[in-house]
Every structure is written in structure tokens, then in C-alpha cells.
Specification:
- Helices cover 78% and strands 0% of the residues.
- By secondary structure, the chain is mostly helical.
């Protein structure tokens, strides 16, 4: 029962951390390209006609777009850490792994920011044939730049989760002495 409570608490904590990350992430990317939100995300999240201020809408979008990653990843990480001896160790190690996943996700976002900036300096719409661009964008290069950041962010989350699973299994085995030599 303690393990189940730990998994549920970890899922809630990871969801809130992922949502908070999304809020901060989208505040930063809104600064780069407000049009990415006003011409695309506001419509996607049905907030185009909302009377909320832009930054609040962006925060809502950031939270809604990311909280589920925490809810998805935390139980997987907890299951991968099933070899931990007790619920307290499961909680501590899984929370550390969740923070590692967040750090990897952030690293991918920072990398994508630089990569997207370089890719969009000499912007050619032909290079983005498969991408969605709303009509009448004033700054399509900045829209594409934020697109790079957002796409790499999700990739970073999934790669971080894969690293997290490996870490959890290794730490779990080690805590049981299975890898002791």
C-alpha cells in the first residue's frame, strides 16, 4: 500500500513539475514568437477568444501541453524502480530521476533554441514544406524557431524518460545488491 501511495504521489508531483516546466518554457518561447501562440496555439487550445491576458493564456497552454508527460513518465519510472527495497527509497530515487528527466528535457530545449536560431537565420519557406504556417505571419522565421524548440522539447522528454528507466533499473538492482561484485 505504501508503494502505491508513493507512485500516486510521484505521479502528482511529476505532473505538477512537468506543467510548471511547460509554463516557463512557453513564457520564454512566447517572448521569441508571440505569433506562434496568437496564430497557432491559441486556436489549438481554444483560447483565441478568451479575455485572459496573453501571458496567462500562454501559461495555461504551457501547463496543458506538458502536465501529461509527468503523468505518463512517473508511473513508468516507478515501475522501473520496482527493485527498490521500500517505498521511501522508491520515492527518493524516482523523484531524483524525474528531476534528471526534466534536466535532459531542458538541455534539449536549450540545444533546440540554438539550433532553431541557426536554422532560421537565413529563412527559406521551401525548407519547411511539411510544417504548418498560418497565413499572414509577420515573422515566419521566429515562428519556425519556436517550432524547433517545441518539437525538440518533446523529444528531450522521451529521451530523458528512456535514460530515466535505465537509471531506475540500475539503481534498483544495485539497492538489492544484485549488481554487487
Amino acid at each position: 500500500m505504501k508503494r502505491l501511495a508513493a507512485v500516486l504521489a510521484l505521479t502528482l508531483a511529476a505532473s505538477l513539475l512537468a506543467g510548471a516546466y511547460g509554463v516557463l518554457h512557453d513564457q520564454a518561447t512566447f517572448t521569441i514568437s508571440p505569433e506562434y501562440f496568437t496564430a497557432f496555439k491559441y486556436h489549438q487550445f481554444r483560447l483565441a477568444d478568451s479575455p485572459l491576458p496573453d501571458r496567462v493564456k500562454v501559461g495555461v497552454i504551457g501547463f496543458l501541453a506538458t502536465w501529461w508527460m509527468g503523468a505518463f513518465i512517473a508511473p513508468i519510472l516507478a515501475l522501473a524502480g520496482g527493485f527498490f527495497r521500500d517505498a521511501a527509497t522508491l520515492w527518493r530515487e524516482t523523484l531524483r530521476t524525474i528531476l534528471l528527466v526534466l534536466a535532459i528535457t531542458l538541455a534539449f530545449g536549450v540545444f533546440a533554441g540554438g539550433y532553431g536560431w541557426v536554422r532560421t537565420r537565413a529563412f527559406d519557406p521551401a525548407d519547411y514544406a511539411g510544417w504548418y504556417f498560418p497565413e499572414n505571419l509577420r515573422r515566419p522565421a521566429r515562428f519556425a524557431w519556436v517550432g524547433w524548440i517545441h518539437n525538440f522539447g518533446y523529444l528531450g522528454g522521451f529521451i530523458g524518460a528512456a535514460f530515466g528507466v535505465v537509471r531506475q533499473v540500475a539503481r534498483g538492482y544495485r539497492s538489492r545488491g544484485a549488481l554487487a561484485g
